[in-house]
Amino acid sequence: FAPRNIFFFLKVCVTVGSAKLLDMAPDSVDYMYDGCQKEAMEKLIHSGLLKQELNVNAGFQKALDVNATCSKLIPGGTKEHKAALLAYADGAEDFTETFDNAVETMGGNISTYENHFHFKSLHFLLMDSMLLMSTKKCKTLHVLQEKEYTAQKGSTMRFGKFIKVQTSYSVLQKMEDWDGHVIFNITSCFFVNLGDNICSTDEAMALISPAEVFTVEEVNKIADDESDYTEIILTSLFISISLGPQLMSPLSGLC
What we know:
By secondary structure, this protein is α+β, with helices and mostly antiparallel strands. Helices cover 30% and strands 25% of the residues. A hairpin with a 3-residue loop joins strand 10 and strand 11.
């Protein structure tokens, strides 16, 4: 991709100001259910847990529509998988922020996960959808963030939550005002394209997993003829699961 008419370019190690540290997100709910999808589907969806979680969360209930008019299903998936992807892709911002925060912070121990993480069904459906849809190919994706970030070149990090990204750099340039923002240019090897696959309104949208580990390649402060912004370049390293199968032991020993 080509930079935006750059006339000033300065490499830096760390962004300034009050900023979020890009680290390994150790408290993330990052279990991938690989190898036990059938068991997880039974325990987290068919058992009635999905309905229970919908009943106690109005935002979740509003976002998830298993009977949506979109007739498309992802390969090997169900209407619940499609509904979960569409809920996250096009759901209200307050709902997706609540879900993101829960995924990022409620996997530190089993007690927190059991008692306070009320999106077990949605998390499984999204993770399983990514396993079903992943092409295992790498691609550079992009996301613009208003929040400031601290990132050390050469360090490793995970987002620790699902990240909605754009597949088109040029489209993002036209859509957004970049001034004061952070643009992440991310080479991911475990992403899925959403858009038309789920009848989303944003055809250029893709999804990155909470478990994918990246190397921070560059952190650059950039000023061009339109705006000043920070560029953070990330390259996929591997998929990391910090908690592993023990996280699922309260749910009758999945896997």
